[in-house]
Design brief:
381 residues; Butyryl-Coa Dehydrogenase, subunit A, domain 1; Butyryl-CoA Dehydrogenase, subunit A, domain 2; Butyryl-CoA Dehydrogenase, subunit A, domain 3; 3 domains; three-stranded mixed beta sheet; 10 helices; 52% helix; globular; binds flavin-adenine dinucleotide
Length: 381
C-alpha cells in the first residue's frame, strides 16, 4: 500500500520493521534455511523492538497495536525471512491471541506477558494425522479423571513445537458432537505423558520447527481449560479468521521479496547485448508482478481495516489469504524464471522463496477451504 495511505504511526512502524528486515533478517535468511536452524537471534531482536507484544493489550505488557499494524510488520518480516514470519504468526496470532482472547484472568496474567516479550514461545495444535481441513473430525480426546483432564491422541505439523513452552491444544470430549464437543487446553512443555517428535524434510520455511505431539494419559489441571469446555472449536475459528490476515500479509512480503530479487537480477544480468531489464518482455513481467502484489496488499489492508473497525471481515480475510497466497506462489515462480538456471540453485533468494511460498496455499486453511468460506458467506449457504 502506498505510504500516503498509511497513518504517520503506521509509516514509522513500517520503516522500523523494514530496517530490521533489511539489516538483520535478510542477510541471515539463507544460512538459517540451509542449516534448518531456529532463528533465536531474530526472535530476540524482534522482541527488543517490541514486535512480539505489538497487538497485545498494554495491561499485559504489549503495545495495544492494531490489525493493520500487525499486517504491516508481518509483511516486512516475511520480506526479510519467511521462516521468522511463520514463527511470529504462530506464536502471536495463534497461541498468544488465543490465550488473550479466551483465557481466564489467571491464564492471561501467567502466560501473556512472557509471550509478549518472547521469553516464552507459544504453539497451537489443531491438525491431526486423520484430520486437517475437516478439523472437527479430530480424534485427540479429553476426559475427566480424578478432577483432572486427561489427553490422549496426537497432533501433526505443529509449528514452534520444538521450542514452545506452552501449547494450545484442541481435543474432543465427545466425537459425536463434532465441533460442539471440542475444548481448548493449555499444556506445558514437560508435562507427563506429553512427547514432542520433530518432523523433518520440509520443502520450505526450513528455519521453523514442525513436530508431532503425542499425548498418552497426559494429565492437565482443570484450571488449564481455556474458557468454556465445548467452545474450543468456535474459539479456534475466531482466532484463525483473524490470524489469516497475518498469513495473507506474510504472502505479500514473500511476493515483494520475489519482485525485489527479480528486479535486482534483471538489472545486472545481460543477454543479447543488453540488460534483462531492458527487454520489454521482462519489464511486463515486473509490471504484472507489481500489480498483483499491490492488489494483494490492498485486500490484506482492507480485511485488517474492517477488523479494526469492528466490522465483519471474515470473507475479506479469506479473500486476502486466497489471493495473496496465489500471488506469493506465482511471484516466486516468475522470480525464478527471470533468474534462469541461476535461480534453480541454492543459495539464491529466488530458490528459497519458491520453496517457502508454496505452504501459504496449505496452512491456516488451504485455498480450497478459503473458497468454501467465501462461497458459504457470499451465497448464504
Ligand atoms: C509447514 C506447516 C506448518 C503447519 N503448522 C500448523 C500449526 O502450527 N498448527 C496446526 O494445527 N496445523 C499446522 N499445519 C497444518 C495445516 O494447517 C494443514 O496441513 C492444513 O490445514 C491442511 O490439512 P491436511 O494437511 O490434513 O490436508 P487435508 O485436509 O487432508 O486436505 C488435502 C487436500 O484436500 C483438499 N480438500 C479437503 N477438503 C476439501 C473440500 N471439502 N473440498 C475441496 N477440497 C478439499 C485440501 O484443500 C487439500 O488440497 C501446518 C502445516 C504445514 C505444512
Amino acid at each position: 500500500m502506498s505510504g500516503a495511505l498509511l497513518s504517520e504511526d503506521e509509516r514509522l512502524l513500517r520503516s522500523t520493521a523494514r530496517d530490521f528486515a533489511d539489516r538483520v533478517l535478510a542477510p541471515r535468511a539463507a544460512g538459517l534455511d540451509k542449516r534448518g536452524e531456529f532463528p533465536w537471534d531474530n526472535i530476540r531482536g524482534m522482541a527488543e523492538i517490541g514486535l512480539f507484544g505489538l497487538t497485545i493489550d498494554e495491561e499485559y505488557g504489549g503495545g495495544g497495536g492494531t490489525t493493520r499494524q500487525l499486517a504491516i510488520v508481518v509483511e516486512e518480516i516475511a520480506r526479510g525471512c519467511g521462516s521468522t514470519s511463520v514463527i511470529y504468526v504462530a506464536h502471536l496470532g495463534l497461541c498468544t491471541h488465543f490465550i488473550l482472547r479466551f483465557g481466564t484472568a489467571e491464564q492471561k496474567e501467567r502466560w501473556v506477558p512472557p509471550l509478549a516479550r518472547a521469553e516464552k514461545i507459544g504453539a497451537f495444535a489443531l491438525t491431526e494425522p486423520m484430520s486437517g481441513s475437516d478439523s472437527a473430525a479430530m480424534r485427540t480426546t479429553v476426559s475427566m479423571k480424578d478432577r483432572q483432564y486427561v489427553l490422549n491422541g496426537s497432533k501433526l505439523f505443529t509449528t514452534n513445537a520444538a521450542e514452545a513452552d506452552v501449547f494450545v491444544i484442541l481435543a474432543t470430549g465427545d466425537r459425536q458432537r463434532r465441533a460442539r464437543g471440542v475444548a481448548a487446553l493449555l499444556v506445558e512443555r514437560g508435562a507427563d505423558g506429553f512427547t514432542i517428535n520433530p518432523q523433518h524434510g520440509k520443502m520450505g520455511m526450513r528455519a521453523t520447527s514442525t513436530a508431532e505431539l503425542v499425548f498418552e494419559e497426559c494429565a492437565v489441571p482443570e484450571s488449564n481449560v481455556v474458557g468454556v469446555e465445548g467452545e474450543g472449536f468456535r474459539q479456534t475459528m475466531d482466532v484463525l479468521n483473524s490470524s489469516r490476515i497475518g498469513i495473507a500479509a506474510q504472502c505479500v512480503g514473500l511476493a515483494q521479496a520475489a519482485y525485489d530479487c527479480a528486479v535486482e537480477y534483471a538489472g545486472r544480468r545481460e543477454a543479447f547485448g543488453q540488460r534483462l531489464v531492458d527487454f520489454q518482455g521482462i519489464q511486463w513481467t515486473m509490471a504484472d508482478m507489481a500489480t498483483d502484489i499491490e492488489a494483494a496488499r490492498g485486500l490484506v489492508m482492507r480485511a485488517a481495516t474492517l477488523r479494526d473497525a469492528g466490522l465483519p471481515f471474515v470473507t475479506e480475510a479469506s479473500m486476502a489469504k486466497l489471493f495473496a497466497s496465489r500471488v506469493a506462489v506465482h511471484s516466486a515462480d516468475r522470480a525464478m524464471q527471470v533468474h534462469g538456471g541461476a535461480g534453480y540453485f541454492a543459495p539464491t533468494t529466488a530458490e528459497r522463496l519458491y520453496r517457502d511460498a508454496k505452504v501459504t496455499e496449505i496452512y491456516e486453511g488451504t485455498s480450497e477451504i478459503q473458497r468454501m468460506i467465501i462461497a458459504r458467506n457470499l451465497l448464504d449457504m
